[in-house]
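Cont'd.
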Amino acid sequence: MKNAKLQAFIPLFYIVWSDDLLTKKEFFTLQYYIDSQDWLSVEDKIGLLSRITISNPPSRQDLTDWKNTIEQSIQDNPEVKSIFELAVVLSKNDTTVQNLEVSFAKLENDLGILGEEAISNFKTKAKSFTVNQQAEASFDVRKITDLLDGEQAHIINKVKSIISRPEFKLDAAMDIGVYRQKVFDWCTILAKENLGNMAYPKQYGGGGNIADYFAIMETLSYHDLSLVIKFGVQFGLWGMSIQSLGTEKHYAKYLRDIGTLKLPGCFAMTETHHGSNVKGLETTATYHHETQSFTIHTPHPKAQKEYIGNAALHGQMATVFAKLIIEEHDYGVNAFIVPLRDEKGVVLKGITIGDCGPKMGLNGVDNGTIRFDNVLIPKENMLDRFACVNEKGGFQSPIPSDNRRFFTMLGTLVGGRIGIPRSALAAAKTGLTIAIKYSDQRKQFGPEGASEVPILNYRMHQRRLLIPLAKTYAVHFALQYLTKRFLNKSEEQMQEIEALAAGLKSYSTWSTTEILQECREACGGKGYLSENRIDALKNDTEVYTTFEGDNTVLMQLVAKNRLSEFRKSFGEMGSLGIINYVYENAKSAIAEKNPLIIRNTDEAHLLDYEFHLQAFQHREQTILASAAKRIKKLIDTGLEPYDAFNVVQHQLIAVAEAYLDRVVLEQFQIAIAAVEDEKSSAVLTKMCQLFALSQIEKNKGWYLEDDYMESVKTKAIRKMVNQLCWDIRPDAVALVNAFAIPDSCLGALV
Amino acid sequence: MKNAKLQAFIPLFYIVWSDDLLTKKEFFTLQYYIDSQDWLSVEDKIGLLSRITISNPPSRQDLTDWKNTIEQSIQDNPEVKSIFELAVVLSKNDTTVQNLEVSFAKLENDLGILGEEAISNFKTKAKSFTVNQQAEASFDVRKITDLLDGEQAHIINKVKSIISRPEFKLDAAMDIGVYRQKVFDWCTILAKENLGNMAYPKQYGGGGNIADYFAIMETLSYHDLSLVIKFGVQFGLWGMSIQSLGTEKHYAKYLRDIGTLKLPGCFAMTETHHGSNVKGLETTATYHHETQSFTIHTPHPKAQKEYIGNAALHGQMATVFAKLIIEEHDYGVNAFIVPLRDEKGVVLKGITIGDCGPKMGLNGVDNGTIRFDNVLIPKENMLDRFACVNEKGGFQSPIPSDNRRFFTMLGTLVGGRIGIPRSALAAAKTGLTIAIKYSDQRKQFGPEGASEVPILNYRMHQRRLLIPLAKTYAVHFALQYLTKRFLNKSEEQMQEIEALAAGLKSYSTWSTTEILQECREACGGKGYLSENRIDALKNDTEVYTTFEGDNTVLMQLVAKNRLSEFRKSFGEMGSLGIINYVYENAKSAIAEKNPLIIRNTDEAHLLDYEFHLQAFQHREQTILASAAKRIKKLIDTGLEPYDAFNVVQHQLIAVAEAYLDRVVLEQFQIAIAAVEDEKSSAVLTKMCQLFALSQIEKNKGWYLEDDYMESVKTKAIRKMVNQLCWDIRPDAVALVNAFAIPDSCLGALV
């Protein structure tokens, strides 16, 4: 194409041959265009058309030449912005070509080429701002670590140093038998370090420090979750069941040996046919006054104890939950200490142990089934804090209602619903540390001609990892709050604390399941290899949403507690009246705010913590009032309450979610208000804003339905979430470094 | 309480002692009330107060007596509806008590008791409608099975009968080495049954039937997913790479041996440093004209091939993707056949194999790494369909652009993006079959005094399993459509089909990940035991969202294809102008519909398939136009296109999702329209309605933001989703039975 004006076609020719999205049809479009240009001679046309014949493509060298020609022209004429302008330059400002602007633009469109984009692609991309994002902490990592660890820093550091020892080395390829023994051995080491008995009273050799016990559970969870669960079964479930449900004689007899792991034991509650519905347990404990003993019995195979940790291999005794029968009268579920094995590990007569076999995770824990064939135990083995058989052989309890006694007993076991969500939290922290550090290093794709870019610079990747990171920080402070409430509990507050624990257990464990899913996908194939740990974290915590209470069932308990509190707080008026009142009142309160708030998209407003909290509170109150109203209405129309609650079950979950969201946000904000260091406070504030706004974004359907926000605002919030992710990205690595998880727990990737 | 009027207090006394939600404060409230009643004598008050002293609770017998008294009264007076009315009856219609209505109601509220609920709880609950739901098919299961299997019924039944044989027995506890060998042996059996070579041309011993090949992949996926992937690596990736990228000489030399598994091989594309960005591969194939050969070389450790199936143990050869270098010039990525092991399995000189070790799942597949140390291969080993080295030692290709050639090559491999989503679909079907059948049998909780209820009768459980079931049916028909499009492809349609395959691969695999998560949780502890299969299904399919293209990356490809199509279809006008036009036009089209539709909550309208499809189309078009407009604007303001695409990355995913949702719904509707059997059509229509409405519910935030619906309508849709779940529940077991999955694949639960 020596004829200068013909050079005008080079960019289009180059693009049709190199753009992998163009089809035959586009070639014909271009051919038709050339054919219809009357300023071209027949020879010109033939020459041009010969370069775009599908059966006779240009050589690779032609293409390279064209590309060089174009790039050189653009370099010489940096003002060029469109394919037409480039064509003019290439034609050496030929006047005929200068007149083609309209038809060239049409042609570009016919071909589906975005001209500006194409031109940009010929320029060097060194200036791309996506390329330049990188890790750069705006704060002192150590200070955030101190803040997170708080008063438990000492014990946390002790545990970290123990699990970093060579004998705690993780091995993803262990055989199940070897793994179970290894976990038992690890527990023995921890017991020797006086970690197992940390929560027991000092007079029984314990540390008398429950706060430290929870910190131990959480910190161990960085390491191996089978270890945590085995540890929790032995020292938490088994030991604490003695402490919570037994009396002095039991403490004196058992606690010391449990704390040193001399006496491994089980917590045998769940049966094959009864998990969530514990009240329906069918194992029986029948009292015999003449021999001052009980017979523990499994009436049919589906009433066997199932999933019992420590049962398949190591447990020598178990706290067994069974219906107490005295003179053929059923006194409801009570707890009994039942020996399973002798000191050499031989299973005792009348006891049949099964092995649950391979599980999705936690394969270092020896879960098993237990069947009792008329096993005799002495009367003193009844854990008799809340009920006993008196000297006359009669049932006696300070709590007359079977139901109430049962829930009081369960209430004392609420500690498990603190240990598990804290363990889940630690797993999320570990997963995020691995995924964020990997994503900061892993590069893939980049601007044309420039080097590849860390995948954490991509917006979707930021959303997938940084929103979960913000939530993880939020959950951390919420669980600190829950722990404090539990440690300072009074009887009056117990129901609220139990509901809070049930709720945060669900909240934290579901959050962890979701987060580890994102972490796995964010690490691609590397996330699938066991050596990189996400495998184990994900599979081990998978059952956290089920054990210590199925999350969906727990969320309904939380909702029922909220409904009950709601009814109580409006005792002054008729129930339906008050519900209407609150509901309408909430509505009108909002209506007043309308002009000011529902369309407000000012940055300062969107980032304002008061706006966040009000939005969360409004959602919580409105959903609660609405659910209460709906249940009332359904029952009024003749539905059984059981059916009414089933009809609104979906809404009950929403009641609990909204309540928990509010508690979590509130506690995050309170925690930040107490931070003195400015830089720590600044970065945590950003995290809290991201948590709040991403939750609002997630629930934008609800807010729009409720007219609490207009679409202009929900759209502005979406953008703000993206912006916050972008702003936090340079701090992301430092924010996971602040978890200060031992390197030995982070797998091969980091 | 012999004094009849005092009996009025029995219900409240009973409730405060038995209700586990009441606290000390409530007792004081009740005490205060009694104290303030001037119609009671001092003795009466002392007597009453003594029954509600916390330090001196009634005996269990007292409580039982009270309960019996109450229940007897209600039985005798079934018209009683409130605690006050009950009190009147118990007081033998004492006139003083009759005057207490207002203060009693207030007291109830102060105590937080919902009177009607309490009364209901004393009645028998046999009439609860929740209790009565049970499995009862409204259609002929066989007819739906025939519909799903279609023309592939024959091969599907053959595969089912093979995987049901004793030698295919599943074993969750296999050691990794044993498992890998077992999977290889299974593949050998399948090859002998002429299933492996099904897609190869008949002249090379194949079946020449690609439709059957995909059906085989899908049906095998009911069994063991390691088997499917091993099978897919050997016969699909390895064999098809020869067929798609090679020429006659390669077919003649290799296909027969690959089809019989005499020649196990690998597909070696991914490298440690380059997965999604395949163009960036660093392995080199340097041509030597003098010896007519190539040297295959791994330039640095991170350029090693990684995750390669069949590499760690069995592969004797591999299709290796490497940059072709001729005289120091880089001609882009091409494919070469490279021997790895001799026939005895001994690794050849210059080849270093690593083992990826234990993975989250698919542990029956021997994934490995491959490093090449200047490995010499003959010139004929280049797969030369799209490029070759000519006799003069020069590069030659019918496709001059390296980029275009590269994408054409990849395009021929699109079959993998059909096999994987279909395998994922089968895994979802298996998971749902297990979870739904279990939930139909598993009972937990129930109305007071009645028997327990199948958990599938609970509304949340229905939402968790039946919405996924509807989606699974929808995806089934969408993948049938994709397969047909692929089998009847023309060059003109290839880009669209590639985008569709990339999109549905993401759609189906993400859907499976989500669904199996629900299935696991829905089965509780049972879902965690390996013997029940959800473990394996979940972990094996986990990497489906990553391999054959990371889903997030693929969704961006889909979005870019949609944007490109969008630009092309409006070639007549300037690009920004047209975008504005379409966007505003769409808006106004809707505005016209407003009064009719956005508030319409008629059942007939909500269930109307035209409404569903229009809503999906509107979302698709509006998001697409909006994304196009936004990108244009960002580039106009000076952003590099690379950065602009990063800014809108989140929106691009939404573009792809909306497109795929529409395709999936459309194909489901088209499939139903062709169903002749009325009962089949009726139940599938319900499933399609549930799919459509649950997707709209999921995206209600978007619809509200867009003013396409008002909140009254989105709320009505939520209720309709619940109602559809309830209506489908009796058919649920039959709907999973229609998948006709062999019992041997369903684990121990079913």
